[in-house]
Design brief:
about 300 residues, 6-stranded parallel beta sheet, 3-stranded antiparallel beta sheet, 11 strands
């Protein structure tokens, strides 16, 4: 029977290049012990060729090494989050403030333009808390504004009804966990993705709960969501108040909460700006152009 051989690689961030020699030395020791693997240490990545079982063990060892080095405070003040083969770097001062706020507070309400990493970093932190047994469950939700939250009129089962609206959340989870591990976590009820309308009557204990696209909630929906908070939980609310899909005469629940909840112990507010946009530079320019236009018409 022919032996299965696979190839894989792990990128070493620039900020960890100083530790590459130490990592490489330890991997070379493994290569002597393990006959079924070939390891190459290149400029910014490590490639491996061998049997799936050996590759898996070496990958885990390597990620543990990178994780231990990344826990040392980087000289540029940046932060890292490690997920399987994905290393997430917190890129801007605003993002670092945001991540640290999630670490230290029960409820974080964040607003800012597209591309600032509001949703992605919140989900990354949720997975981090889940993996480290700080919480037992990760719950992600969005309001379904386009369907008026009346999903019964749409064809298919509940998953098919809400899939177009929550698909970006699945994409983020797959990027961090991979499709197989994501599916296992969903099957074990450790990760749940639901529309906001289906959260009434529930209380979340020992959970990390994210309300995304919160600018599309009404004040009453926001109140309903925040009062789901239970012991041992963390909540994050994210949104961009400049991109609301609500009717013009309706106030955004995000804007309303931002105004009335200031000063409550355990709740912190983080505002990200165009300086925290980490997408293509053209996105920053688009945001600036729209901000100038909006100021002119007010």
């Amino acid at each position: 029977m022919e032996r299965t051989i696979i190839n894989t690689e792990i990128i070493i961030p620039k900020e960890l290049q100083a530790y590459k020699e130490n990592i490489a030395k330890k991997l070379k020791e493994i290569e002597v012990i393990e006959e079924n693997i070939e390891i190459k240490i290149l400029e910014n990545r490590i490639t491996m060729n061998g049997s799936p079982e050996v590759i898996k063990r070496v990958e885990q060892y390597l990620l543990d090494q990178i994780n231990s080095f990344s826990k040392k405070e980087p000289t540029d003040g940046s932060k890292f989050l490690i997920f399987d083969k994905k290393i997430v770097k917190v890129l801007t001062p605003g993002q670092k403030k945001y991540v640290e706020a999630i670490e230290k507070n029960e409820i974080v309400i964040a607003k800012g333009p597209a591309g600032t990493g509001k949703s992605f970093l919140a989900i990354a932190m949720g997975i981090y808390f889940l993996r480290n047994n700080i919480v037992k469950k990760l719950v992600l939700t969005r309001p379904v504004v386009e369907a008026g939250e009346k999903l019964g009129f749409l064809p298919g089962d509940i998953q098919q009804k809400v899939d177009p609206y929550v698909r970006p959340l699945y994409d983020f989870l797959e990027e961090l966990l991979g499709p197989e591990r994501l599916l296992k976590n969903i099957e074990r009820n450790m990760i749940e993705i639901v529309p906001l309308a289906y959260m009434r009557g529930r209380t979340f204990k020992d959970s990390f709960v994210l309300l995304d696209e919160a600018q599309n909630t009404t004040p009453m929906q926001m109140k309903m969501f925040l009062t789901r908070f239970g012991f041992g939980s963390k909540m994050v609310v994210t949104g961009d108040v400049t991109q609301t899909d609500l009717d013009a005469n309706k106030m955004s629940g995000l804007t309303h909460a931002w105004e009335i909840l200031q000063g409550i112990k355990g709740i912190t507010f983080v505002e990200l700006t165009e300086e925290d946009v980490v997408r293509h530079d053209i996105v920053k320019e688009i945001i600036k152009a729209y901000e100038k236009w909006e100021k002119k018409i007010k």
